[in-house]
Design brief:
Shape: elongated
Strand content: over 45%
Radius of gyration: 22 Å
Structural class: mainly beta
Distance between the termini: 64 Å
Length: 117
């Protein structure tokens, strides 16, 4: 409802809701990749409650970096990235178990995934 200068009350029949309002996630989250095991690609979902520098990397079981998937400043929200089994040199990795890790603000987490040829 609104009031005009004459003191007459106006009642609106519709409320206006903006569909562009997106709520930020309440907590950090790193989900299990899907599908797992995978070939040729897999999706990795994660959530950020606050803005910050975000890094997502894939490592082999020896702790060697295989590929950097994300290395940027990101706003709060839900994200999905895909990995196709290609390393930083553009080569297809071997079948096996890999770790993916997220570092964003004070949050760090990792999970395992399996690539099969």
């Amino acid at each position: 409802a609104g009031i005009n200068k004459l003191g007459i009350y106006l009642v609106a029949e519709k409320s206006i809701v903006s569909p562009d309002i997106i709520l930020a996630p309440a907590t950090y989250r790193l989900s299990q990749n899907y599908p797992n095991p995978f070939n040729p690609t897999t999706s990795i979902n994660y959530s950020l409650p606050v803005s910050g520098k975000t890094i997502v990397k894939v490592y082999n079981l020896l702790g060697m970096e295989i590929v950097t998937l994300v290395n940027s400043y990101q706003s709060p929200g839900d994200y999905r990235i895909q990995w196709n089994g290609i390393d930083n040199d553009g080569k297809l990795v071997s079948s096996g178990v890999y770790l993916y890790r997220i570092d964003s603000g004070s949050y760090q987490n990792n999970r395992k995934m399996v690539f099969v040829k």
